[in-house]
């Protein structure tokens, strides 16, 4: 059944043409083959990564991530370096690579950040943050330190916040307490994502209140009261 499903294409009429409605079926079938340990699973997933439909390609990456099988690492690296018409597919492949390889993928991501354009670098940063791997902090800090443009630096700080580790939080809180210019405010914005964590919110407010900085005080104004008050 899964061998049929992973190759099933079903085009349905829509205004101006047709659309393939079987993308999710192909992705779920690929996951089924991986779960069964079918001898054709790797070949079918590799083909699905080159599917004409972006949803199916993303589904292949999700299936690989679920498998946590490091043998798919080289395939994912090739896909990331080859690129995709849909950047979200590249992001899903980076996320899958971090899931199946773990820390060995961090060096690849660091090198990718050095040569990626701004849009792709942002996706890589977010994948690193969402991976919650402690080792990703060093990669993201290096990205933040070596980048001059405001938006990439802001993205790196948000990705650091998404790690949700104490060292990541400590780094951002230190920026709030000591950084100059927009860096302190960007650190506030990154940590504000977790405003419902009252303990972290109080630490953020305490760090900001030590500064005689009107702009920073304005940045924390919305955090003075917990959400819902």
Report a brief summary of the structure.
The protein has 229 residues and is mainly alpha-helical.
What does it look like?
The protein is mostly helical. The protein has a domain at 169-229. It has helices at residues 2-5, 23-36, 41-48, 54-67, 73-82, 87-101, 104-115, 118-131, 136-146, 150-162, 166-178, 182-191, 198-209, 214-220; strands at 11-14, 17-20. It has a two-stranded antiparallel ribbon. A hairpin with a 2-residue loop joins strand 1 (11-14) and strand 2. Helix 2 (23-36) packs antiparallel against helix 3, helix 2 packs parallel to helix 4 and helix 11 (166-178) packs parallel to helix 13. The longest helix is centred in the middle third of the chain and has 15 residues, at 87-101. The protein is elongated and about 65 Å long. The model has no long low-confidence stretch (mean pLDDT 93).
Shape field: elongated
Show unreliable segments: none
Strand elements, count? 2
- Determine Rg (CA atoms, Å): 21 Å
**Strand line-up across the major sheet:** 1-2
Helical residue percent band: 55-70%
Number of helices: 14
Q: Characterize the main sheet.
A: 2 strands, antiparallel
How do the helices and strands follow one another from N- to C-terminus? HEEHHHHHHHHHHHHH
Q: Structural class of the helix and strand makeup?
A: mainly alpha
Through-space gap between termini: 53 Å
| Percent strand | under 5%
Mean pLDDT over the residues = 93
């Amino acid at each position: 059944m899964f061998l049929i499903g992973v190759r099933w294409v079903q085009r349905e009429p829509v205004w101006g043409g047709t659309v393939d409605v079987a993308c999710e079926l192909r992705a779920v079938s690929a996951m089924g083959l991986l779960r069964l340990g079918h001898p054709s699973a790797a070949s079918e997933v590799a083909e699905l990564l080159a599917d004409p439909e972006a949803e199916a390609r993303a589904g292949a990456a999700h299936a690989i991530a679920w498998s946590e099988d490091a043998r798919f690492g080289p395939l994912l690296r090739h896909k990331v370096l080859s690129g995709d018409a849909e950047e979200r597919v590249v992001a899903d492949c980076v996320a899958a690579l971090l899931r199946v390889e773990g820390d060995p993928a961090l060096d690849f991501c660091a090198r990718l950040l050095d040569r990626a354009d701004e849009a792709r670098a942002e996706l890589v940063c977010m994948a690193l943050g969402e991976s919650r791997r402690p080792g990703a902090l060093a990669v993201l800090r290096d990205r933040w330190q070596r980048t001059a443009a405001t938006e990439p630096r802001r993205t790196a700080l948000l990705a650091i916040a998404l790690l949700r580790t104490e060292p990541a939080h400590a780094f951002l809180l230190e920026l709030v307490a000591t950084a100059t210019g927009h860096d302190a405010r960007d650190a506030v914005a990154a940590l504000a994502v977790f405003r419902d964590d009252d303990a972290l919110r109080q630490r953020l407010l305490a760090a900001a209140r030590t500064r005689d900085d009107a702009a920073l005080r304005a940045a924390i104004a919305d955090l003075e009261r917990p959400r819902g008050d």
